[in-house]
Structures are given as structure tokens and as C-alpha cells.
Amino acid sequence: MRIIGGRYRGKKLISPAAKTVRPTSDMAREALFNVLRYRLKGDFAGLRLIDVFAGSGAFALEAVSQGFAAVTMIDVNTTDLLKNVKLFPAENDKITVVKVDATNMPVFAEKFDVLFMDAPYHQGLTEPALRAAEKLLRPGALCLIEIEKNESCNLPPAYRLIEERRYGAAKILIAEFIS
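Now predict its structure.
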């Protein structure tokens, strides 16, 4: 696992020790940042990202490398992601880690512009976590929701599906938070 672009391009990340952590592949991460770049007009400065079910933290740390102003990582087990956060000491002011159940998230002072969610596959956590995230997103927030390619997900009414993409075993739902 490594950072694929931006200021820390090529920086190696610590692979997760937990067998239940399944990082988004480098290829898929690169493709998703291309989607973000296109949809957000190429400028991440000033944007805040929330990574729900953060696992290793690779996606949020990629966002820091590529210029996001701030990232917040949510997970019930922060052991793996905290190891990777320590690799970015110069970015401590941009990174927040919250150990909490994603279906019962706290309210933050500021709303998020981008949501990345990668719940454990086939455990029924995506939809309740999306409902919990509604209070955290600004209207128009771009949402990237990773599920297993054969998994179904009924987006809550506050989200509008823009498109679906497949990357190996993963299906990415690209949506907009509309309410």
C-alpha cells in the first residue's frame, strides 16, 4: 500500500494487521481521485473529507497528500489507521481520528464536502451509516460509497445516485447529498 499522488506520492503505508480490514486498491483509489478531480473541478484546497469505516486510513491520507484542507477518519478500531497517521507528522493539524460506531456518529463543528464510505461487505452497515452521516454533510456533498460488486444498497432519500463504477471486487456508488 502506498500514496499514489500529491505531496506524498510513493510514500509507503503500513498494511493492516487486522484480517477484517480490506483497503481500497491503489488502482481504485487512483480512479476515485480522478473522479473527485473531475467533479470538484480539480481543486481540493479548502475541502473537508470524512472517511467512514476508515480501516487503514489510506483513502483519507491520500486526500491529505492530494491537497484536502482536512480529513476526519471514523472507525471502531483505530489501531491500523493510527499507525499510518503517525507517518504524517507534518499534517497533524489536518487529520482527525474518531473511534466511534459509524451508525452513531457525533456532530462536528463543520460540515464535510466529501464522504468516502467503505463498510465491511455484506454486513448491512452501509445504509444505517449513510443515514447517520446525513447530519455531517453540507448540501451538494459528493459521496463515494464502496460496496462489494454483487451487494445491493438502497441509498437513503437524502442521497441522489449519480453513477456506479466497478473496480475488481468493488462497486463504487457516486452520489450527491441533496438534503
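The chain has four helices and seven strands.
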